[in-house]
């Protein structure tokens, strides 16, 4: 999740991604725009995250996203 208009992965994401790839794991990472919902007390909506998650699952399973 990124609050920037053009989302990018954080530098903190690079270390585990590099380690997982070095271990031979197939890893795909994607940054999406949305709120920092883990920092809020109440509910927050992240439609871009929901869409990206459903698309990733559909791609992995071979079924179209809803």
List keywords for this structure.
66 residues, mainly alpha, 2 helices, 0% strand
Describe this protein's structure.
The chain has two helices and no strands. It has one domain (11-61). The longest helix is centred in the last third of the chain and has 15 residues, at 47-61. The chain is 41% helix and 0% strand. The two termini are 21 Å apart. The chain is mainly alpha-helical and 66 residues long. The model has no long low-confidence stretch (mean pLDDT 85).
- Biggest sheet architecture: none
Strand content of the residues, in percent?
under 5%
- Count of runs of 4 or more consecutive helical residues: 2
pLDDT averaged residue by residue: 85
Helix content: 40-55%
Rg, alpha carbons: 14 Å
Short note summarizing the structure:
The protein contains two helices and no strands.
Question: How do the helices and strands line up, and which of them pair or pack?
Answer:
Layout: H1 11-22, H2 47-61
């Amino acid at each position: 999740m990124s609050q920037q208009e053009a989302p990018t992965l954080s530098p903190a994401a690079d270390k585990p991604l590099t380690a997982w790839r070095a271990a031979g794991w197939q890893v795909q990472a994607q940054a999406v725009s949305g709120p920092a919902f883990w920092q809020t007390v109440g509910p927050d909506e992240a439609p871009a995250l929901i869409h990206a998650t459903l698309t990733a699952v559909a791609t992995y399973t071979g079924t179209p996203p809803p």
